[in-house]
Each structure stands twice: as C-alpha cells, then as structure tokens.
Specification:
2 domains, alpha+beta, about 25% strand, Alpha-Beta Plaits, 6-stranded mixed β-sheet, globular, about 450 residues
C-alpha cells in the first residue's frame, strides 16, 4: 500500500502537537481541557477554508465538527470520529517525558500516541487533504474531534448526540481500535472492531448500626457485610457465552485442537483458560467470553473505634452483547445470594449496554479491501473489545460503527496491548502513514 510522505509528515507533526497539549482526562469535569486540541484542529482545518463548528459541553470541554457536504442528500454519510483527550500518566514509569511528543528512531513518544491521538491526527490530515484536492462526495464526509472519551463520553459523544445530533449524525462511523496485526495458524490477521462490551458500573450500599469498636461481638458492622459482598463477587463464576465473535476469535488462536474444542465448550472453557501459560492472554480471553465483575472501590467508616453504619462498594461490571439491565440484577442476585442481595441498596453509576455492528456492510467491504492491500494475504477478523469506545453511542443511534486503523507489521498485538494506556506509549511513523491513507481511501471508495 502506498503512503504519501507529505501526509505522513503532516499527521506526525500534528500528533506531536496534540500530545504536547496535555489534554489529560482524569474523570472530573474540570479536567480534559480538550479545548486545546479542539482549537488546534480547528486552526489546522480552517487553513484550507473548511467551515468548522465547535461545541462546549462545559468550560474547556470542547468538540469540533467539520463537514464536506455531499451532492446527493440520499447518499450514505461517513463520519471520522477521533477523541482528543488522553488518560493520566505516572511520569516515574516513563523513560521519556510523556508529554514532549518526541520523534525518536521513527517513533512518536507520548501519552495518547496510540490511544488515539495518532488516529485523530490521521483523520484530520486525510480530511484536509480531501477538501484541498476538491473532493466532492455523494454523501457527507464528517470530521468529529470529540472530547471526554476517556471518562465515558458524557461530555463528548453522548452530549453531542443528545444535544447536537444533526451536526454529527452519520450512517457509517469509524473510530478507534482495529488494524492491529497478529499471527494466526493460517497467517496474519488484522482486527476490525465491530462490537464492545457494555459498561454497567454499580454502587452497592451496605447498612449497619454504629456502635463502639471495643465491643465488636454481635455488632451490626456494615464493613463486614461489604467484605462478604466483595468475597462473593470475587468467587462468582457466571456461565461463559459462546457467541459468534468468540468462535471467530478461537478459530484464529495458536492453540492445539483439543484446547480450542475446550474453549468452545461452556463446561470446559474456564479450566482451559486457567491452564494457559500466558495469563495476561487468558485474562483477555476470559473477558471476551464472560460477563465480568470487579469490585474496585470501597468507601466507609468514620473512625477506628466506631463500628461503621454504612459502606459503599463500587463494582465495574462489563456485559456481553444481548444482555439487559435485568440480566445484570439477576447476576448480582445469583452471586450474592437472595438474603444478602436483599440487604444491599443497588444504584447504577454508569450504564451503557453492549453494542455490535453487522459485518455485511459496504464499509466492512471497503475497509477490509484496503487493509488487505497493506498486509497482503491477511485475514480481517471481526473483534469484540473488552473496553468501551464512543462507537457505542452511534450504534445505539442506529449507525454502523467500526474501530479501524492500520498498523505496521512491527506493531504486533502484544506490542499494542503493552503500550495502550501503558508506560512509554509510542507509535511508529509507518503506522501513522498507513492509518492516514486508510482514511483517505475509505472516504473515496465509500462516498464516490
């Protein structure tokens, strides 16, 4: 696949500047400051005469939208959506300044290089190139630089779709993940994200009776109840879900036939995962085939000598496609037991059900063809991701949304996973160029 050196250089430079803008989103409303990257992108695009609109969901939480209007109002539209915020860092874990955006030995270093400022920069460069070259699509082409993806999208994609739907609605959407090469028994495979697990965070409140800590025998201690809740959630083993995407994933694994057979058997899957040598890989595979429960936060108690009357446990629950809020409650009832479940006050913190897009679409065909041209002979593998992206908001609104990029042969799946949200995050310039061309070619093939 041919990459254009000028576009690659432009995307690389834009990525470096976006990293240096340090739009760190720690989950609080006051963080993010995506206005810095939004204004950068607006200035970059307006240099070609493109009309840009920006939207502030809260002070500093700015998203940008630009559009190349199509000639046929009935033709399908395509949105390139890239987020502009990044997750926090622990600088002591880095061998270089995480916000310097340095180019070292063909790689751009910095927080957000992979997730996903590299793709966002590639989208902007592709969009500007198409506008400058006189591209006249049949359907609208939209660039959407969105805030707040790293903290759930409430001040970004969710807010935009709720409040400014006409500005960003599209039939087809491309966002993050996808395009990572891995070796399978039949050769190279490239992932294309078509589904993601749901987020169903829950706050579990346990009540007790305050009393003096010097007389604990028989006390109504909310912390002890909370400890039992955590223990039961940790020990809960829901039945695996052998869904179609799981079958596709297992087919491409480098395991013997007996292990693969076990992974397709709900009664044997957990034991097969427990027996794998690579436990990090096993954790990923487990998450792709199970609803998961991770109690991660506890609040409670006021003083060492006082029996607590209230303790709160916050649980990260991730659901599989097809599950409902009622299914979540049934999981909790089963995990905790009827008696303890009835003692717990349960409040949803964040609820987005799992989403999926079909693969029998024109966008799948176009992306697959372009990706194969960069990695001849590769198989395109539909994937379910265990985290969340802004694609879920578009899927819920009826759009077909995929996570797609195009990484070089050196950016193997294990390298990608190690750098994603990790120390010394960085991306090679070859991947930046390939991803930029993916967006150029996809827009041309989809919209003309």
């Amino acid at each position: 696949m041919h990459t254009d050196p000028t576009r690659t250089a432009a995307a690389t430079e834009l990525l470096q500047t976006m990293i240096r803008n340090e739009c760190v989103n720690d989950g609080t409303l006051e963080s993010g400051d995506e206005i810095r990257n939004s204004d950068l992108l607006e200035t970059y695009l307006e240099g070609t005469g493109l009309d840009c609109q920006h939207y502030d969901s809260a002070p500093g939480r700015r998203s940008i939208v630009s559009r190349i209007e199509g000639s046929d109002p009935n033709a399908p539209s395509l949105c390139l959506m890239g987020h502009t915020d990044v997750v926090p860092v622990t600088p002591s874990g880095w061998s270089r300044d995480p916000f310097a955006g340095e180019l070292i030995d063909g790689e751009v270093w910095g927080r957000g290089a992979i997730d996903m400022l590299g793709q966002t920069a590639g989208m902007a460069v592709a969009f500007k190139h198409l506008a400058a070259s006189g591209f006249r699509p049949k359907g609208d082409l939209i660039f959407f630089g969105v805030a707040d993806e790293e903290a759930g999208g409430n001040w970004g994609a969710r807010w935009m779709l709720d409040n400014n739907l006409d500005a960003v609605k599209a039939d087809y959407v491309i966002t993050e993940w996808g395009g990572v090469p891995s070796e399978t028994p039949t050769g190279t495979a490239l992932t294309l994200n078509v589904a993601e697990k749901g987020v169903a965070w829950q706050r579990l409140k346990l009540k007790g009776t305050p009393s003096h800590g010097s007389m604990p025998w028989g006390a109504d201690n909310a912390l002890i109840k909370a400890a039992e809740v955590v223990r039961r959630l940790a020990e809960y083993r829901p039945t695996p879900n052998i869904h179609n995407l799981w079958r596709e994933l297992v087919k491409n694994l480098h395991f013997d036939a007996d292990t693969k057979d076990a992974m397709l058997d709900p009664d044997r899957l957990d034991d097969a995962l427990a027996g794998l040598d690579d436990q990090m890989h096993a954790r990923t595979l487990h998450a792709c085939s199970h609803t998961t429960f991770s109690p991660n936060v506890v609040h409670g108690g006021t003083k060492t000598n006082t029996v607590p009357d209230e303790v709160i446990v916050e649980v990260d629950i991730r659901t599989l496609p097809g599950e409902t809020p009622e299914d979540i409650q049934q999981h909790l009832r089963t995990a905790l037991g009827e008696a303890l479940y009835n003692e717990v006050e349960i409040e949803p913190i964040h609820l987005d059900m799992a989403t999926a897009s079909p693969t029998d679409t024109p966008l799948w065909d176009v992306l697959s063809g372009i990706m194969k041209s960069a990695h001849p002979g590769a198989e395109i593998q539909p994937s379910l991701i265990t985290g969340g992206t802004d694609a879920r908001f578009y899927r819920a609104a009826g759009s077909v949304a995929y996570g797609a990029a195009l990484f070089s042969a050196g950016m193997r799946a294990e390298v990608f996973a190690d750098r994603f949200h990790g120390n010394d995050e960085r991306i090679d310039v070859e991947s930046i160029g390939l991803t930029t061309e993916l967006f150029v070619e996809t827009a041309v093939q989809m919209l003309t």
